[in-house]
Structures are given as C-alpha cells and as structure tokens.
Amino acid sequence: MSLDAEVLIDWFADHARDLPWRRPECTPWGVLVSEIMLQQTPVARVEPVWREWLARWPTPSAMAAATQGEVLRAWGKLGYPRRALRLHAAAQAIAEQHGDEVPHDVDALLALPGIGAYTARAVAAFAYGKRCPVVDTNVRRVVARAVHGAADAGPPSTTRDLADVEALLPDQRAAVYSAALMELGALVCTARTPRCADCPVLAACAWQRGGRPAYDGPVKVAQKFAGTDRQVRGLLLDVLRGTAEPVAKSRLDVVWADAGQRDRCLHSLLVDGLVEQTASGLFALPGEHR
C-alpha cells in the first residue's frame, strides 16, 4: 500500500498551517509541550497558552522549578489538567536525568513520566526528524479511507495502526510525511465533511474508488460535557485558580448543587494530586500551601 510521498509532502509545503511549534527555531522542549497540550484540545485554544508557557518556562528545568500549583494555574481552561502535572513531572525528569535536553530516542521518551506511545513518537519525529510512525485520530482516518477504503478507522489498535503507517513512511523526509498525513486529516480528510475535491491523493484513494461506502463498524458514542464529573472538577479547580489563598470547603460547595457528585469530584481531585488539603482543612492547588 502506498500514498505518493512526494505529492503529499509538496501539498504540505503549500498548505500547512503556520504553527509556532513547526518552525525551525522551535526547540524539542517546545515540541513536547505542544504535543501534550494538543491532546484532545483544538489548535486555536492551545496556541496562545503554548506561547505563554514557552515564554515563562523556555526549558524543562525552568518548569521543573515551578510548583504544581503554578503549572495548574498556567494551564487554565485547556482541560484534562492531569496533563499539566504529567508535563511537570516529565520536565523534572528531563532536567535531572537528561541534562535539560529532551531525549531523541523513542524508548528514552517513553521512560519519562506521563509520556505515552503517541507523544514519544511525535517528539522523536517532529523535534528530531526520526523515521517512526506517528498515529493520531486524523492519521488513522486518512489511512482507513485512502488505503483500506473504509469511511472510518473504527476502534484503535496500536499494533495495527503503527504497522499501517510504518508501511507508508518513505525512507527520506519521513517526519515531514507524517506531519503531512496529520495535516491532511485535520484540514481535508475530515470526519464529517471531507473536502475530497481538494485532496492531493484523491486519485489513489481506495475509499473514492470504492464509491465512498458508508461506515458500518461499531457506533461511536459522542462525548458529552454538561453535567459530567469533568465539568464539576473544572468548576472546583476554577475556584482554586482564582485565589491565592487556600479556601474553605464552603467556597467549593457553591459551584455545584449536587452534593454527592460535588464531593465525589473533590475527592477524585485530591486522589489525582490536583488539589491538596491543608492541615487546617482548607483546600488549595498542590505545592502552594503545605
């Protein structure tokens, strides 16, 4: 199976978004920060926060010197705040174990706290130009359609997905090709309304040649937000980010009427290390008020 690498790389050169973490001057640390922030979060929301973080913490050691609370405040409303704590832990490990330089080897990246299979390969490829498969939702969809002739990739399979992309990678400029696959899925081969007329590999697309059959796999359950524990956890964290001092539980109680759900969410924040309780029974962001 193949998608013409030269065609796709040329398309990427003409159509890629000008994102700061793609620029030559971006450091591997900047790439790592972007990859963590971009997980389940749109580029438009990430870019201003990424710029603020890199200005404030231009190196892993700079972030490692910050408290967890400071990092969580700076994370703001990007969502899934455990990512901020994982990035902080990774920064500490990089500063202490790797001379303040982000590792370039996939296995060394995987050994960092909170760095998973996707992030390790993305950093190796996009920060260091390594030839390794990088698979996200967009890439899976492009491969499903263009290579396998299916409307959607269906449930993920790490082994299969990595093997699919590995087989497509050219020997030269593989990292650029990976970025191009990702961009094609984000801008053209989108989930709901693919812009097939604008696709550089339209002639080679198995889904097009097969008449664009409808997806017949397992139904995806749309994620909701309103009323979920995730929403309540965010509201509780908003209170703590908005004050410099620890707060009494009564300040937290007003954010959500359902006491059972609210207390469950507060407990989960404590367990996750996103909130701490002081000796006097007040609540604060971690590392700020021991």
UniProtKB/TrEMBL annotation:
Cofactor(s) recorded in Swiss-Prot or TrEMBL: [4Fe-4S] cluster
Which keywords fit this entry according to its UniProt record? 4Fe-4S, DNA damage, DNA repair, Glycosidase, Hydrolase, Iron, Iron-sulfur, Metal-binding
The record's annotation in Gene3D superfamilies points to: Helix-hairpin-Helix base-excision DNA repair enzymes (C-terminal), Hypothetical protein, domain 2
Give the HhH-GPD domain ranges: 37-187
Q: Which reaction does it catalyse?
A: Hydrolyzes free adenine bases from 7,8-dihydro-8-oxoguanine:adenine mismatched double-stranded DNA, leaving an apurinic site
**What InterPro entries would the database entry show?**
DNA_glycosylase, HhH-GPD_domain, HhH_base_excis_C, HhH_motif, MIG/MutY
Please report the name of this protein according to its UniProt entry.
Adenine DNA glycosylase
Q: Which organism is it from?
A: Saccharothrix coeruleofusca
Q: Upper taxonomic classification of the species? A: Bacteria, Bacillati, Actinomycetota, Actinomycetes, Pseudonocardiales
